[in-house]
C-alpha cells in the first residue's frame, strides 16, 4: 500500500497561445502568490502550503498532463510497490532537490509522487 504524506501541488493546464490569460487569471483574479518556476511552459503559484502549477499543453492530446502530486518518504520503495502491482512508471524532466515519478490510474488520471532530497 502507498503511504502518501501530503498533497505537494496540483497542475492545471491551459492551451497554447493563452499564456497571458492564464497568468492574469491565477495572479490577478485568484490572487495567488507567484513563486519561482522550475520548468518550461508553466507558471507556479502558492496557495497556502500547496503549489498550483499552471502548465501550457496541447489540449488535443487524449491524455492530459493535469495531475495531483503527493509527497512520499521513500520513492524507491514506492516505485517497486507500483511496479509489483503492474503499474507503468513514467518520468519527466529533472527538478533540483527532488526525485519524482508519474503514473496513471486505470482511467487515465495522472499522478506524480515526489521525494525531496
From TrEMBL:
Signal peptide from the UniProt entry: none
InterPro entries associated with the record: Glyas_Bleomycin-R_OHBP_Dase (IPR029068), Glyas_Fos-R_dOase_dom (IPR004360), VOC_core (IPR037523)
VOC domain segment(s): 6-116
Record's protein name: VOC family protein
Entry-linked PANTHER family: FAMILY PROTEIN, PUTATIVE (AFU_ORTHOLOGUE AFUA_3G15060)-RELATED
Lineage: Bacteria, Pseudomonadati, Bacteroidota, Sphingobacteriia, Sphingobacteriales
Organism: Pseudopedobacter beijingensis
Pfam family, one: Glyoxalase
Amino acid at each position: 500500500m502507498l503511504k502518501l504524506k501530503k498533497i505537494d501541488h496540483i497542475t492545471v493546464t491551459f492551451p497554447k497561445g493563452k499564456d497571458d490569460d492564464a497568468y492574469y487569471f491565477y495572479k490577478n483574479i485568484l490572487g495567488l502568490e507567484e513563486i519561482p518556476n522550475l520548468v518550461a511552459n508553466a507558471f507556479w503559484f502558492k496557495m497556502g502550503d500547496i503549489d498550483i502549477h499552471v502548465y501550457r499543453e496541447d489540449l488535443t492530446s487524449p491524455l492530459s498532463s493535469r495531475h495531483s502530486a503527493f509527497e512520499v518518504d521513500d520513492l524507491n520503495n514506492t516505485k517497486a510497490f507500483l511496479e509489483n502491482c503492474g503499474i507503468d512508471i513514467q518520468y519527466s524532466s529533472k527538478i533540483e532537490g527532488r526525485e519524482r515519478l508519474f503514473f496513471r490510474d486505470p482511467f487515465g488520471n495522472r499522478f506524480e509522487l515526489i521525494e525531496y532530497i
